[in-house]
Amino acid sequence: MKKIVYILLIFIIIFCNLKFVYADDIQEEVFSKNDLEDIISTSATSKEELILNSRIAIAYDRNSGKTIWGKDENKRTAMASTTKIMTAIIVVEKSNLDDIVTISSKAAGTGGSRLGLKKDDKISMMDLLYGLMMKSGNDAAVAIAEYVAGSVDGFAVLMNEKARELNLKDTHFVTPHGLDNPDHYTTAYELAKIADYALKNDIIAKVVSTKFYTININGYPKDLSNTNELLGNVEGVNGVKTGFTNNAGRCLVTSVNRSGFNIITVVIQADTKKDRTRDSIKLIEHIYENYIQVNIKEIADEKFTEWCNINKGRININKAKDSGINLQFNNLENNVVVVKKQDLDNIKIEINSIFELNAPVEKNTIVGKLKVMVKDVVIDVEDVYIENYVAKKDVYDYFFECFRAYAHWGRSKKLKLS
Fold it and tell me: Would residue 225 show up in a list of annotated catalytic residues for this protein?
C-alpha cells in the first residue's frame, strides 16, 4: 500500500511539474462574450491615479519611443508567449514565407498552446506565422526555429543577435515560444520596443491585426481565431500578442492607434485573464483621456523666431567683415511629444547664447542652447548655431573703412564751414 501511495505521489509531482513547464495561453480561464463586454464597459473609465493588478506594465509612445506611463517597466521578467513577437521578426527577416515546412517529431511533441501539428505534416511558412501569432502555437514556434536555424538553440542565437541590434540590454532569449526558463527574460519597456519594431513590418502588422484566418495543413483548411481578446472589441486596437506561464503570469502586449496617436501597452504578471484584460483597457483609456500629442517643433520654431528678433542684433562679432548672421537650432529629438493635458500650459522653451565672438566664425559654430521643458522637466536640449561663415576683416577692409570715415569727416567739415 505504501508503495502504491509513493508511486501516486511521484506521478502527481511529475504531472504538476509538466503543467508548470507547459502552462501557456490555452490553459487560461475562459470567459464569455458577455463577460468580456462587462469587463470593457467597467474598465473604460479614467482616473488620474491608475491602479493595476498587473505587477509590471507600460504605456509606450510609438512616435517618440518614450515611456508615457510605467510600473516597474524596467524590471526583468519572464515573458511567456509574447516571446513570439521576436520569433515573428526572425521569420519575416530570415526566411521565405512561401516555403513548405515538414514538421518534425520534436515540433509535433511540443507542449503548451498548440496549433495542432503532427509529425510529417506539411505547411507553408506563412501559415506557420499565422499559427504562431494568432493561435500562439508552440509547435509552430519550434517548427519555425528548426527550419530557419536548424534547431531551437540556433534560432535563439538569431533572436539574441536581433536583441543586440535593437540595443536591448535586459532581454535574452532561450526558446522561440517563451516557456519558462530562468535565462529567458525581458522588461516591459524592451518588449514594447520589440513590438514597435515588429509592427513596422507590414506582414507582421497584418497578421497580428487579423481576427479570423484559415490556414492549410497538408492541403486541408484549418480555421484560426486570434487569442487577443481586445482585437475587434476595443477602439483602435490592431495587435499584438497574448501570453501566459506560471512565472510570467497573464500577459498582453497591445497596439492601439487613435487618430494617429499610436501607443503600445504591455501588462505582465496579472493574476487572471480578466485582470490582464481589465488592466490593458484601463491603461489604454487612461492614456487617451489624460495625455495628448503636442507638436513641440511648431512651438520651438515660434519661440526661436521671437528670440532671434530680439537678440540676434545683440550678438557682436569683433572684426567681422559682414555682421549679418543666420541663426538656427538642431533638429529636435522628436517633433511631436506626448504630454499630460493638464501640463499644456507648462511647456517652456528656453534659449541662451553668447553675445561676443571674434571673426572669423566658421559655418555651424555653436553659440548657445535651446531647451525644451514640460513642467520644469527637461525633455530635449539642442544646439543653437550660426549657419553662415563670417569672414574676418583684412587690410583692404580697414583701408576702405578709413577712406569712408575720412570722406564722411570731410563732408561734415564742409557743411559746417558753409
Answer: no
The one catalytic residue among 43, 54, 71, 84: 84
Query: Residue for cell digits 576683416?
Result: 393
Is 81 one of the catalytic residues? yes
- pLDDT the model gives residue 39: 78
Cα separation values, 217 from 111, 124, 150, Å: 19, 8, 21
Amino acid at 59: A
Phi and psi based region of residue 259 (left: phi greater than 0; alpha: psi -120 to 50; beta: remaining)? left
Q: In 166-271, which residue ranges form alpha helices assigned H by DSSP?
A: 188-199, 202-208
Section 354-380 average pLDDT: 95
| Identified catalytic residue from 81, 255, 280, 353 | 81
Length of the chain: 418
> Rounded to whole angstroms, how far apart are CA atoms 236 and 116?
31
Residue 98 — pLDDT band, cuts 50, 70, 90?
very high
Q: Which residues contact 171 (CB under 8 A, 6 or more apart)?
A: 163, 185, 186, 187, 190, 191, 194
CB atoms within 10 A of CB 371: 16
Among residues of the chain, what percentage have pLDDT more than 90?
Answer: 80
Which of 217, 221, 198 has the alpha carbon at shortest distance from 209? Answer: 198
Residue with cell 490593458: 280
Question: Is 84 assigned a catalytic role?
Answer: yes
CB 256 within 8 A of CB 284: yes
Cell digits for 156? 535563439
Q: Where are the beta strands (DSSP E) in 128-248?
A: 212-217, 220-225, 237-245
For residues 135 and 235, the answer to whether their CB atoms sit within 8 Å is no
- CA separation for the pair 59, 39 (Å, rounded): 20
- C-alpha to C-alpha distances, 293 to 58, 62, 260, 262, 376, nearest whole angstrom: 18, 11, 9, 10, 18
Radius of gyration of the chain (CA): 31
- Count CA within 13 A, CB hemisphere, residue 165: 11
Grid cell digits, residue 418: 558753409
Map grid coordinates 475587434 to a residue: 232
Residue 1 predicted with pLDDT over 70: no
CA–CA dist 20, 273 (Å, integer): 17
Sign of CA dihedral 119, 125, 129, 130: negative
Q: Render pLDDT for 371-407 as a digit per residue (tens, 0 to 9).
A: 999 998 999 999 999 999 999 886 555 555 565 655 5
